[in-house]
């Protein structure tokens, strides 16, 4: 049988097979046995479960094979998927992070294993990085928006760019890969219990068109954009298929709620603002409407200095309008949980 033929094939996992290691972990895949030669001290430091397993005499541990050695080093067999285990162990030895649209997909199995092995510091570090990718307040949201307002040719020169430094060859197709992707973030938040990222992820998804699907725009490997389709510089996509039915419904409810909120707000936003003159008040006849597909951006636009043909709003009234805009945008941000039924 194919499985039996492959069972004896041993594969030393690159980067996780240290000659000076003092314990070998093994995990089975159809392709053979993956071997990791590691240091007990490192495993102890990160995981209380590893600490327990490796401290037990081999004869009493359900996860060890009695008296088994690989090149004179004791072996512990684990039942985990080798790819997932590799991700977790790499987090022990090579902690690093780079913002990427794939992150929420990639860290999901790592977080599940970190929970199983009670690697609490690793879990906390990953959750902190994911939370840093998804704005927790309106100021962080605006900061991310400012980045997304850059064109790819500008982003190439960012020292904190997706390639760790300026990269003049970054193609426009990488643009979407540089920003966090909302549907997989929502899936991760549900599975790994990270509710703090939901409001921003839902808001980003609410302004993403259903036809702009992450996978549709890429090859099956998820890395190379389909060369037959033109990828616009500012296109943002989502992995729509990862959204559960319940969350899709929450998204629809949120869009409806925001649309109604925007209509009501546009009608009343400056009712209690005391403009200094009829001239300043009249500039509002020429103000744009709140379109509601991106109410935060619309409010920012609405509360910029306004003018009417032949008249400019005075400095004092501009200040009032600006402050009102700041206040209303902060309120909208705080209402996102309610709009999307996240509470
Ligand atoms: Zn005025």
Name its key features.
343 residues, alpha/beta, 5-stranded mixed sheet, two-stranded antiparallel sheet, 7 strands, elongated
Give the overall shape. elongated
- Number of domains in the coordinates? 3
Could you give the order of the helices and strands?
HEEEHHEEHHHHHHHHHHHEEH
Strand element count: 7
- What share of residues is helical? 40-55%
Return Rg in Å: 26 Å
Structure description:
The chain has 343 residues and is of the alpha/beta class. It has 3 domains: 79 residues, no CATH class; 149 residues, no CATH class; 73 residues, no CATH class. The protein contains 15 helices and 7 strands. The strands form 2 sheets. It has a 5-stranded mixed β-sheet. Strands 6-7 form a two-stranded antiparallel sheet. The longest helix is centred in the last third of the chain and has 25 residues. The termini are far apart. About 1% of the residues have low confidence. The structure holds zinc ion (ZN). The site of zinc ion has 8 residues, from helix 15.
């Amino acid at each position: 049988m194919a499985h039996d033929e492959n069972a004896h094939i041993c594969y030393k996992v690159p980067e996780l097979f240290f000659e000076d290691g003092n314990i070998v972990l093994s995990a089975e895949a159809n392709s053979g046995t993956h071997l990791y030669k590691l240091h007990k001290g490192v495993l102890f430091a990160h995981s209380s479960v590893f600490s327990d397993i490796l401290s037990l005499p081999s004869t009493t541990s359900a996860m060890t094979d009695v008296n088994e050695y690989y090149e004179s080093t004791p072996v512990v067999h684990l039942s985990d998927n080798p790819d997932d285990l590799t991700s977790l162990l790499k987090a022990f030895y090579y902690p690093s992070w780079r913002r990427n649209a794939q992150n929420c997909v990639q860290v999901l199995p790592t977080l599940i294993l970190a929970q199983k092995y009670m690697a609490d510091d690793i879990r906390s570090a990953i959750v902190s990085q994911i939370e840093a990718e998804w704005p927790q307040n309106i100021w962080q949201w605006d900061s991310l928006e400012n980045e997304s307002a850059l064109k790819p040719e500008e982003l190439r020169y960012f020292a904190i760019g997706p390639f760790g430094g300026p990269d003049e060859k970054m193609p426009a197709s990488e643009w979407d890969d540089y920003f966090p992707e909302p549907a997989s973030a929502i899936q991760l938040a549900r599975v790994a219990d990270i509710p703090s990222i939901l409001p921003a992820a839902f808001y980003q998804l609410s302004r993403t068109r259903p036809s702009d699907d992450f996978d549709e725009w890429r090859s099956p490997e998820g890395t190379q954009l389909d060369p037959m389709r033109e990828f616009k510089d500012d296109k943002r996509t989502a992995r729509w298929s990862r959204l559960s039915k319940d969350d899709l419904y929450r998204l629809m409810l949120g869009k409806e709620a925001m649309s109604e909120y925007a209509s009501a707000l546009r009608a009343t936003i400056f009712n209690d603002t005391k403009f200094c003159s009829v001239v300043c008040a009249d500039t509002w006849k020429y103000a744009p409407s709140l379109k509601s597909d991106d109410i935060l951006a619309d409010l920012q636009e609405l509360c910029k200095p306004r003018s009417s043909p032949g008249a400019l709003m005075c400095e004092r009234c501009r200040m009032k309008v600006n402050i009102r805009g700041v206040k209303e945008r902060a309120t909208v941000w705080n209402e996102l949980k309610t709009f999307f039924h996240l509470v």
